[in-house]
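Me: Here is a favour to ask of a fellow structure person. Could you put it straight underneath, so I can go through it closely?

Assistant:
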Amino acid sequence: MSTTGVQASTGTQASGVKALGEQAFLRLLTTQLQYQDPLKPMDNVQFVTQLAQFSQLEQTTDLKNRMDSSLQYLASLNTYGAAGLLGREVQVSGGGLSLGSERPMTLQYRVAGNARVGIRVTDATGTTVRFIDAGAQAAGAHEAAWDGRDNQGRLLPNGQYTYQVSAVDTAGDPVTSTTFTVGRVTGVSTEGGAVSLTVNGERVAASDVVGIAP
């Protein structure tokens, strides 16, 4: 049996793990030694090279298994830690709202400098349903109340809404603003190693939590 087949099959360490595997590699090498021509035995250098390839393949497989185990362990720790947030009220980055029976709703935001602030509430289709003029405000964290009504004072149906904050200084130049959503955590889930929370009926990344109520 030619040594070329063994070498070509192993390729790089990564491809060897996927295409061949250490057990198959060992069987192929043993078979090659069993059927080699006694008058033309395998060259020592080639034999040592193939053993080295096998060793590298085994080490790569072992390293991959260890990394997979470590990632699973970290994911378990993250999920366990996030489970401690169940029932807690958290502050999540973003302006998503789930309008329900609890009204008015608190809209929280932060402006980077002194500015005149306006808050625009949109429905699930992106249509503006309410505009709130918050007036002139100093830099820092603020909040506004939304009663769940549109600009004509009509009660809006329960559902998902979003609010955006626009802020400008006295010269009319935009001022950086960020929004936050406050809600209670009712669920924890893990997908692809990432931990998600259910807040106000919406699924949000645990990494988006920026505050936890005492």
